[in-house]
């Protein structure tokens, strides 16, 4: 479930979200995920449990919202001067982050407390925005570029599938092979 | 968690698994997933709740095991006389089954109650076995064939990614585009 209502930066709703998210992150590192309860999060965040239930549904949906927030990219993709270099660098970083133990835990949390798929959709939208930025920059340089959806199918999907379903090589060489396949037909 | 110990067909362990799985499937259709409890499943299956806890862990892990069993293919891939035709047909059927409402629910259940990833690994192994069968048959015919992992990356992964993360076209045309990309470099 997405946080609702939509938050206005600096408004009460945004402050509640910020304090609840911070409480979850702190408590997870203090007592672990297994020990976490909604009343515990509410007490730490200085809100009532019913504020949390009303806005997030239950603990798993709250953990999902926090996980998606952690999966939000913090910087624009690096500009290395060419489409190939930019996509290689982005794919390597994406693979490193997602395949790391915290990345795997966030992906799992994001999917688990997400009955309507909107949090998983936010994860995918973050990746699409980053790829869009790389492709737009390349188009401005005059390079030919593939569709964003094609890059998602050929680079993002295989990485996420291996993380979720199929243990296997998840290294720089693999990221580069996927990018090469995405750029093959240009 | 995988069922343990390993079952011998017709042995007590196999009979327990069969009766518990049947009880879960029947009760899910009678009372829904939300109303399900381990004691309810145990009573219907004629076993003690502790048998279930000992073997499956908790309800979510039991649901995951049942879901993986539902995702097990029941037939060998059709033999249509060529690699391309066989892979097209297999990919279309895989897409149809996984993207259907029951398929989506089973994939979700399989991932949720699966702390160590072994049930997700079984799902992936089922797909790999089917692809292996198609590729081996083509090799016997004298056709050149790609690696199984390449077909998983290029055909299975994008379908599963769209089901889990990114709503979008999941139709026959899409399945064929993915197969074409998997066979492009032969």
UniProtKB/TrEMBL annotation, chains A, B:
Start-end of DNA-binding region: 37-56
Keyword Transcription: yes
UniProt xrefs under SUPFAM superfamilies: Homeodomain-like, Tetracyclin repressor-like, C-terminal domain
UniProt cross-references to InterPro entries, sorted A to Z: Homeodomain-like_sf, HTH-type_TetR-like_transc_reg, HTH_TetR, Tet_transcr_reg_TetR-rel_C_sf, TetR_C
Domain (HTH tetR-type): residue spans on this chain: 14-74
Transcription regulation as UniProt keyword: yes
TM annotation in the entry: none
Pfam families (UniProt xref): TetR_C_11, TetR_N
Keywords noted in UniProt: DNA-binding, Transcription, Transcription regulation
Protein name in UniProt: TetR/AcrR family transcriptional regulator
Organism: Streptomyces fildesensis
């Amino acid at each position: 479930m997405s946080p609702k209502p939509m938050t206005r930066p600096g408004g009460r709703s945004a402050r509640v979200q910020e304090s609840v998210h911070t409480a979850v992150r702190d408590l997870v590192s203090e007592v672990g995920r297994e020990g976490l309860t909604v009343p515990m999060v509410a007490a730490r965040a200085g809100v009532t449990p019913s504020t949390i239930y009303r806005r997030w549904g239950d603990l798993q949906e709250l953990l999902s919202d926090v996980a998606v927030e952690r999966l939000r990219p913090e910087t624009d993709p690096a500009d290395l001067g060419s489409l190939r270099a930019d996509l290689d660098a982005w794919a390597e970083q994406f693979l490193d982050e997602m395949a790391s133990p915290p990345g795997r835990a966030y992906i799992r949390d994001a999917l688990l407390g997400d009955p309507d798929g909107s949090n998983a959709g936010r994860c995918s939208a973050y990746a699409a925005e980053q790829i869009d930025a790389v492709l737009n920059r390349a188009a401005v340089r005059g390079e030919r570029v593939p569709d964003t959806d094609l890059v998602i199918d050929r680079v993002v999907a295989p990485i996420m599938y291996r993380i979720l379903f199929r243990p296997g090589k998840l290294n720089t060489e693999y990221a580069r092979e996927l990018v090469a396949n995405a750029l093959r037909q240009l």
